[in-house]
Amino acid sequence: MASPMPAGSFLDGLRAEGLTVVEVGDWEHHNRNHKGPWGPVHGVMIHHTVTSGADRTVDICRDGYPGLPGPLCHGVITKDGTVHLVGYGRANHAGLGDDDVLRAVIAEKALPPDNEANTDGNRHFYGFECENLGDGEDPWPEAQLAAIEKAAAAVCRHHGWTERSVIGHLEWQPGKVDPRGFTMAWLRERVRDRLK
C-alpha cells in the first residue's frame, strides 16, 4: 500500500533522474480527484498519444477533449525527451482494467493476459503519455525512449518498486495497443538496469 508521493517529490525525483522537466500551469492541483480517490498507487503506466506536435500534444493531455476531460496523465514525454507535467492526482489515463493484472503488479510478478475491465486504474497508476502516432511507423527517438525509462525509474525508485511495477496500457485494458513501437519487456529491462 503506497500513498502517492507529494507533487514536489515527483518533480524532484524526475529531475534527479536527469530529466528535463517543464511545469505546465498549475499542474500540482490539476486533477480529477472529485471523481474518486487517487491511491493507493501500485505502478507506472505508459501510453502513446496518437498525436503529433509537442505543443498540441501537451495541450490535449492537459485539457482533454469532449467526452474525456483532462488531465489525461501526469507527465507528457515529447519526442525530444522533455517531460511536461500537466496534472497531479487522479487523471483520466488508465480507465478500467483487469484486477488480475493489478494483483500481479502489486506482487511484482509476471503479468497475466488482460481479459477483464473491472478495476479503476486511474486510482492506482501514475501515467505518462508519450508523443507518438501509435501506427507502428512513427519513430521513437532515443532521447524520448531514454526519458520514458528515466521517468518510470524515478517513480519506482521513490516507492522502492522494481521494474515489474511498470506496465503498458495494452497490458491493463483489453483492446488497447499502446505503447506501440517497442515492447514493455524491453522497457522493463532498461528500467531494471537503471535501478541497479
TrEMBL record:
Supply the name of the protein. N-acetylmuramoyl-L-alanine amidase
Which segments constitute the N-acetylmuramoyl-L-alanine amidase domain? 27-180
Source domain of life is Bacteria
- InterPro entries reported for this sequence: Amidase/PGRP_sf, Amidase_domain
Q: Which Pfam families match?
A: Amidase_2
